[in-house]
Design a protein that fits this description.
241 residues, alpha+beta, OB fold (Dihydrolipoamide Acetyltransferase, E2P), 2 domains, eight-stranded antiparallel barrel, 4 helices, elongated
C-alpha cells in the first residue's frame, strides 16, 4: 500500500509526457488561432511543440539580417502559418527541405506574430509527399467562392470570403455588388458593394508557387503589377476548388 502514491505519481508523469509529446497538425493550430487568438498565444508561447504539416516555402537566412533559416508550414495551402526556424549554419537541413514536403517538426514556440507562429530551435523528420494531380487552369477568372488574404510584408492575413456570381456581380456576407470584367486583359473592376474601388488582375499561376490556385490579385490603387513583389495594399483572392 505504501507504494501506491509512488505508482500514481509515475502514472501521472508518464501521462503528462505522453500528452506533451503528441503531434499537432498545422490545421489544428490554425483553427485554434482563428477561434481565439488571445487564448492561443497564452497557451503556446514558450511551449515545446511537435507539429506535422506541409512546407509551403523555404527561406535561407542571411548573416547580419536574419538570425536563422526557416521552413514555412501552411494550414490551407495559401498562407505561411508556422515559421520553423533553424540555424543558418545548418546547411544540411536547408538542402533537404523543399516546398510540398510533409514534415514533423519539433521546436519551441518563440512568439505569435499576427497570423503566424514562430517556432525556434527546430528539428525535422520528413515524409514523402504524394504527387499532386495535374489541374486544369481556367483561361478566364473562374466563377465561385474565393478566400481573400492581404499581404503584410512577411506573410498573408486572412480577411474574408466572397462569391463571384458572374462577371457582372459578386456578394460578401449576403451583400451584393457589381463588377466589370475585361476578358482580353483579365482585369476585373469592382464598381459597387464592399469591394468598390478595387481592381483585380487574374493570375492563373503563381510563378513563386505553382501549387497556388487561380488567384485574383487586387489593389485599391489601380491595376496591380504582378511582376513585382506584392504591396501591402494588395488583396489576394484565392479560388476555392
Amino acid at each position: 500500500m505504501k507504494q501506491l502514491p509512488f505508482v500514481l505519481f509515475v502514472l501521472f508523469v508518464c501521462s503528462f509526457l505522453f500528452s506533451s509529446a503528441q503531434t499537432i497538425t498545422v490545421k489544428q493550430l490554425y483553427d485554434e488561432y482563428h477561434s481565439n487568438s488571445y487564448n492561443f498565444e497564452k497557451q503556446y508561447t514558450g511551449k515545446q511543440l511537435t507539429i506535422q504539416g506541409k512546407i509551403r516555402s523555404v527561406k535561407q537566412g542571411i548573416k547580419g539580417l536574419n538570425a536563422a533559416s526557416a521552413a514555412f508550414l501552411t494550414a490551407t495551402g495559401y498562407e505561411n502559418f508556422v515559421s520553423c526556424q533553424f540555424p543558418i549554419e545548418d546547411t544540411i537541413t536547408l538542402s533537404r527541405l523543399h516546398a510540398d514536403q510533409v514534415v514533423t517538426v519539433t521546436g519551441t514556440c518563440k512568439q505569435v506574430v499576427r497570423d503566424a507562429m514562430v517556432l525556434a530551435n527546430c528539428t525535422f523528420a520528413t515524409t514523402a509527399a504524394k504527387p499532386a494531380p495535374k489541374k486544369d487552369i481556367p483561361a478566364n477568372i473562374p466563377l465561385g467562392l474565393y478566400h481573400i488574404y492581404q499581404a503584410n510584408g512577411s506573410t498573408f492575413d486572412f480577411q474574408y470570403k466572397f462569391v463571384l456570381s458572374s462577371y457582372t456581380s459578386y456578394s460578401i456576407g449576403g451583400q451584393t455588388g457589381n463588377t466589370v470584367y475585361d476578358s482580353r486583359n483579365k482585369i476585373i473592376r469592382f464598381t459597387t458593394g464592399k469591394l468598390k474601388g478595387f481592381t483585380g488582375i487574374y493570375q492563373p499561376v503563381n510563378p513563386d508557387n505553382e501549387k497556388d490556385p487561380p488567384t485574383i490579385v487586387m489593389d485599391v490603387k489601380g491595376v496591380p503589377d504582378v511582376t513585382k513583389p506584392y504591396g501591402k495594399t494588395y488583396l489576394l483572392a484565392f479560388y476555392q476548388q
